[in-house]
Design a protein that fits this description.
By secondary structure, the chain is α/β, with parallel strands linked by helices. The protein contains 7 helices and 5 strands, in the order αββααβαβααβα. Strands 2-1-3-4-5 form a 5-stranded mixed β-sheet, with helices on both faces. Bound molecules: zinc ion (ZN).
């Protein structure tokens, strides 16, 4: 993880924090071009009642509308938490490239169980179970604890 990659991941955690403080769930993502330019960023927006408003899904749609297939394949999505199956599928369908996540779905599952939160309606499978050709990196040690703290805040844990 070089300096600029760490910076993108830190930005994802900032967006996740912003989401939490706005009443949404703590997830944030950034789409970065092959040249290292931040193209678009978003955060979770499910508080309005639409549980599909995940940032990774929004970035996949933005990429489909605004990037060529070649640009998409060479782009990287940085994200605070590993894509859920819906977002992994969207990422795979639009042909985006590498994913770097701070914390894994496996970690999130453990954290939520520890906090006594019920299981989600969609099974938290690893990205590569859904879209096997996507290069994936994560979890990122130390930063993952910051994401863990956001989920503890959301669910009232210590
Ligand atoms: Zn998702």
């Amino acid at each position: 993880m070089n300096e600029s990659e760490t910076q993108h991941l830190r930005r994802c955690i900032e967006l996740a924090t912003e989401a939490l403080e706005a009443g949404d769930e703590p997830f944030g993502s950034v789409l970065v071009s092959a040249e290292g330019k931040v193209l678009v960023e978003d955060r979770n927006r499910i508080a309005n009642g639409d549980s599909t408003r995940h940032p990774e899904f929004a970035l996949a749609r933005w990429a489909a509308e605004n990037m060529t297939p070649d640009e998409r394949a060479k782009a990287t999505v940085y994200t605070s938490g590993e894509h859920c199956p819906m977002c992994a599928a969207a990422h795979g369908w639009v042909g985006l490239g590498r994913i770097v996540y701070v914390s894994s779905s496996e970690q999130l599952t453990t954290w939520l169980a520890d906090l006594g939160v019920g299981t989600p309606p969609v099974r938290p499978l690893p990205i590569q179970t859904i879209a096997p050709d996507i290069p994936v990196e994560g979890p990122i040690a130390e930063l993952d604890e910051e994401v863990h703290a956001l989920h503890r805040r959301l669910h009232g844990g210590k």
